[in-house]
C-alpha cells in the first residue's frame, strides 16, 4: 500500500488527466467524461508507483473532495466536475439553496464585483453550500475572500443550477448583482 503522500500525488495527477488532459497518458473520455478503468490502469503503469485497482478504489473512496466516481459496474471512472475538456456530465437542473458561497483570493474581488463569476476555462462556476469549504477554496488563491451568492433569487430568475456527485453546485455564470460580500 502506498503512503498518503503518494495517494495525494496520484489523486492530483488523476484529477489533471481526467479533467484536463486525458491524452497525456493516452486515454480518451467519452461524451460524459467516463474512461475505462482497465485502460486507465494500464496506461498509468508507466508511472511510479504503479496504479492498481485496489489503489484506485482507495483513492476514489478516500479523496476528501470526492473528485472522482465510478459507474455502477465500477468498470468506468470520471472526474465529478471541473473539466476544461468538452463533456456533458449528464446532471439535471436542480433548485439550489437560497444562498451558496464562492471562495476566491482577495486579489480577484474587484474584478468579480464588476463582471460577476465567470466559468473561464471550466464548464461551470463552482459554488459551495458551506462557507468553510469556500474559505478553503479561496486559500488556494492567496488571502481568502468569500462571496455569498443569492442562488435562490438566481433560480427564480431562470438561471440553471446543477449538483455534482460530490455536492459542488454548478452554474454557467453568476452576474455581479447576485453577489454579496
Automatic annotation (TrEMBL):
Signal peptide: none annotated. It comes from the Bacteria. Pfam families: PTS_2-RNA. GO terms for molecular function: NAD+ poly-ADP-ribosyltransferase activity; tRNA 2'-phosphotransferase activity. Removes the 2'-phosphate from RNA via an intermediate in which the phosphate is ADP-ribosylated by NAD followed by a presumed transesterification to release the RNA and generate ADP-ribose 1''-2''-cyclic phosphate (APPR>P). May function as an ADP-ribosylase. NCBIfam families: PRK00819.1-4. This is Probable RNA 2'-phosphotransferase. It comes from Pedobacter caeni.
